[in-house]
Design brief:
Elements lengths: L1 E2 L1 H7 L6 E10 L2 E11 L3 H5 L5 E5 L1 H4 L9 E5 L8 H18 L6 E10 L8 E9 L1 H8 L2 E2 L12 H14 L12 E5 L5 E5 L36 H13 L1 H10 L6 H19 L1 H9 L13
Parallel strand pairs: 1-6
Antiparallel strand pairs: 2-3, 3-4, 4-5, 5-7, 6-7, 8-9, 9-10
Helix pairs in contact: 4-6, 4-8, 6-7, 9-10
Length: 310
């Protein structure tokens, strides 16, 4: 990819795209040029990172027969900054998406990419090799299930499908994420399958304890100091049901560890060790009745959003 980051920031927004292209190595030594439109997206990373989050949009006929076929629009996630260790943060965020696939069928498909990027603002020129990943468009997820994405409505998690919602709450606790809100559609989409079935769709996990990038921060309204401090943000449900989800996660522990091992090539040895230690902390909670009661059952939120503290 070759474009001006300054131009991208200056001339695009949620509704305005700029023309660009990418070159795809479709086979060794064989490069295809694919025209596209692109724009910035997001909030925090857009304001604080060198490489902004990007949405790319293809013209369908131009992608027929390529790996992009049937994906008119995709999100592209790149490292926040240049420098040593930048790719590891991408590797860890991608791991979060892979762990979610172990938990539920309701997720955004993702795919790792290696991007050779030339910033046209750099007078010295030259390519920078970046690890990144692509995220499936909302509408493609909805089409996968014959549903639709709900826009512009506040929907309490308590009226969503119990099993899908609690599994996601456990997942967010597992990766140490508090940077989401289903009610306010912050890093969440809402998928409606039929009149009675509403499912949460989680995305954007860079602020979680599993990833723990240098820019990570937690809301001052929460009683934690760091993203690596876990805090359960799920709403209260019947304890028998929550205990059943607990057993689901425990039964999949070996599957989770296999998923972690597969990501070894995309993070440093130090980050892999930290990742394993952090995830072990989650299973320590699940395996200990007192910790589970204190950190999950007693930490759930009531209908007014307040922690119940039972």
């Amino acid at each position: 990819m070759s474009f001006s980051i300054k131009e991208l920031r200056k001339n695009t927004n949620d509704s305005t795209y700029m023309d660009s292209f990418l070159m795809l190595e479709s086979s060794p030594g064989q490069w295809d040029t694919i025209p596209l439109e692109m724009r910035t997206r997001g909030n925090f990373r857009l304001a604080n990172c060198l490489y902004p989050p990007i949405r790319i949009k293809f013209k369908n006929k131009k992608i027929n027969g390529t790996v992009f076929e049937n994906n008119k629009s995709l999100k592209l996630v790149l490292p926040c900054q240049k420098g040593k260790g930048a790719d590891s943060y991408i590797g860890k965020e991608y791991l979060a998406y892979q762990l979610l696939e172990d938990i539920t069928q309701y997720y955004f498909d993702t795919r790792l990419v290696q991007v050779n990027f030339t910033n046209l603002d750099d007078k010295k020129g030259g390519e920078t090799s970046l690890l990144g990943f692509l995220i499936q468009d909302d509408d493609e997820v909805a089409a996968r299930f014959g549903g639709k994405i709900v826009e512009g409505r506040k929907i309490l998690p308590t009226v969503m499908q119990d099993s899908a919602t609690v599994r996601q709450d456990f997942f967010q606790f597992m990766i140490g994420n508090t940077d989401f809100s289903t009610l306010f559609l912050h890093n969440q989409k809402v998928l409606q399958l039929d009149e009675k079935t509403i499912i949460p769709l989680a995305y954007d996990f860079d602020m979680c304890g599993l990833v723990s990038p240098p820019y990570a921060q937690v809301s001052p309204q929460l009683n934690i100091k760091s993203v690596t401090d876990r805090l359960y943000r799920g709403f209260c449900r019947d304890e028998v049901f929550v205990q059943a989800i607990r057993q689901e996660f425990l039964a999949k522990e070996s599957q989770f560890w296999s998923t972690v091992e597969r990501q070894q090539p995309y993070m440093s040895d130090t980050d892999m060790k930290m990742t394993k230690t952090f995830l072990k902390g989650f299973f320590d909670v699940l395996k200990n009745d007192r910790l589970f009661r204190d950190q999950i059952l007693a930490a759930c939120r009531g209908s007014d959003g307040a922690v119940q503290g039972r």
